[in-house]
Amino acid sequence: MSDIRVRFAPSPTGKVHIGNIRAAIYNWLFARHTGGKFLLRVEDTDLERSTPEAIAVLFDCMKWLGLDWDEEVFYQTKNVKRHLEVVDQLLASGHAYKVEKTSRDGKTGVVTMFRMPKEGVIEFDDIVKGHMAKKAEDIQDFAIVRSDGSPIFHIANVVDDIDQRVTHIIRGDDHVENTFKHICIFRALGAEVPKYGHLSMIVNQQGKPYSKRDGAAFVGEYREQGYLPEALFNYLLLLGWNPGDDREVLTRQEMIDLFELEKVHVTAAMFDPKKLAWMNGEYIKKIPPAEFREILIQSVAERRSERGDTAYSPRLPEEEPSDAADIPLRSDLRSAAEQKAWWDYLAAQIQVRTKFLKDIPAAIKCFVSDDFPFDEKAVEKRLKKPGVKELLLDLVERFSKVEDWTAPALEAVVKELSQGNGMGPWVHPIRVAVSGRGEGIGLFEMLQLLGKDNTLARLRHAAETLASE
RNA sequence: GGCCCCAUCGUCUAUCGGCUAGGACACGAGCUUUUCAUGCUUGGUAGAGGAGUUCGACUCUCCUUGGGGCUGCCA
Fold it and tell me: Are residues A403 and A316 in the same domain?
């Protein structure tokens, strides 16, 4: 156990920006790696935007990503009295003074200013950026209390950090200039100056700070789109840090073991949605089969609607599939074991092809309902061709004779038809006829899952209504 | 304008003076193959420019150029 204490201090605006959450990730990893404490401070001084809902969203995002914090949440608004006491102290010691000022929007009033030293160099060794120095004369006095008497960020931030006994401040790059000011406040108060580590920004394709105009910028959006929290976490971590070897997909424990603030990069990193998508696929492949099966079942059972979103939330795999019982299309599968096997088989087929959890419902629609959409292009390309109707009806004939309704047996039927010239001419129309789509899991596995009755019915139906003579 | 920071494939990066510059994503080709994926094999693409230090520089120094941040009674 070390005495290291770090904090994540967001202002709760209802949206948690990815750049911001990356700072939380780095703080959390630093604390877990060093055995220190990770504190959460809610900078809720903006009363308009800091609603209970916004704070709930913040907690939710952090929990989703597995960013658990130590000790009680610290609310900045609860410390206003202390902020103002400290200001009085600064006033008394001559480190602050009051002055009448006119703000940008024309309001005139008395504000309290912090008096900067007039000479000397303010310097600190930033853990990620290295040695930083700035002449005191280059920094102007700055306001710490508004004319309405409310404390301003600079003083509130420093006082809270003192009160929370924060030892390392790990935050966004945009605060480097503030750091010189804050160090002066710490000194004026006779407090020990914490260590600093400033993180570069996440930028867009144009090299500008990543914003909502560049795509999903908030944690909640990734959650809604079916990203796994571990994938987002891993990707964000890699944006500016690496373990020093070629490993990229890391377990949480590996991250904790290997993370070092000193190795965090100084340069801004460009956000690459494609690599995140790849990473997400990697994590989806790693989901234990039983758990993935549960995800499928939940998506069908519309269990998700209870949550109001399509987010994936890790849960313990159960012994028996929850509502697997209901496979509307397969009334022939009576026993629980048969049904479980059916779901397991489907899950295995789907899992390897899934990049985003939100794509699952569409991918399995045709297996759990007769009410699936037909892709017009696929129909045009595969069914609206001369002779297809005859071909499908012939297949109905042949398939109906198959007793052992398994993928290999069905494949044998088509293989025989094709006489070694490629099964394409049969496979494609069948696929569209039974699933409505031109892509999906292996065709014969698909037919096995659908079962004989459904397959024959769909082939017949497609032959009668969609196929060309 | 002033102050501060940064600079290796398109992108994320490895390299801590010896490099035939490595990996991943993306992209191309191939194998497997009924589609889409997965998997495997494989290809191309990089050290902003200029001086200096050195036997030797992507690595160190300086300049130029380019990019970013800050410059509020926002945080």
Answer: no
* Nucleotide of closest approach to A277 (CA, C1'): B25
Per DSSP, the three-state class of A124 is: strand
- Asked whether strand B has any atom less than 7 Å from the CB of A385, the reply is no
Cβ of A122 < 7 Å from strand B? no
In angstroms, the CA of A128 and the C1' of B55 are apart by: 35
Q: What confidence tens digit (pLDDT) does each residue in A13-24 have?
A: 878 999 999 999
For the segment A126-144, what is each residue's pLDDT rounded down to a tens digit? Answer: 999 998 989 998 999 999 9
SS3 content of chain A, % helix, strand, coil (to 5): 50, 15, 40
Question: Does the C-beta of A294 come within 7 A of strand B?
Answer: no
Per-residue model confidence (pLDDT) at position A408: 92
Domain containing A38 — which CATH number?
3.40.50.620
What integer is the mean pLDDT of A241-248? 92
Say which CATH number the domain at A449 has. Answer: 1.10.10.350
Q: Does residue A207 fall inside a structural domain?
A: yes
Q: Is the CB of A176 under 7 A from strand B?
A: yes
A390 and A333 in a common domain: no
Q: Sign (positive/negative) of CA torsion A365, A366, A370, A373? A: positive
Beta bridge partners of A155: none
The whole-number pLDDT of residue A1 equals 61
CA of A332 to C1' of B7 (A): 66
Query: What is the span of the domain harbouring residue A213?
Result: 1-72+200-286
B53 C1' – A379 CA distance, angstroms? 71
Q: With beta carbons less than 8 A apart as the criterion, state whether A6 and A27 touch.
A: yes
Same domain, A303 and A446: no
- Nearest nucleotide (C1') to alpha carbon of A269: B12
Q: Considering the domain boundaries, does residue A22 fall inside one?
A: yes
Q: Judge whether A402 lies within some domain.
A: yes
Q: Among A203-207, A267-271, A324-328, A438-442, where is mean pLDDT lowest? A: A324-328
pLDDT at residue A317 in the model: 38
Write the single-letter amino acid at A257: D
Q: How many residues appear in chain A?
A: 469
Q: Are residues A4 and A29 in contact, defined by beta-carbon separation less than 8 angstroms?
A: no
How many domains does the structure of chain A reveal?
A: 3
Å: A246 CA to B2 C1': 43
Provide ipTM, 2 decimals. Answer: 0.93
Query: pTM here?
Result: 0.89
Single residue among A368, A390, A413 that ends a domain in this structure:
A368
A134 touches strand B (CB under 7 A): yes
d(CA A281, CA A235): 12
Distance of C1' in B59 from CA in A57, Å: 46
Domain's final residue, options A245, A271, A286: A286
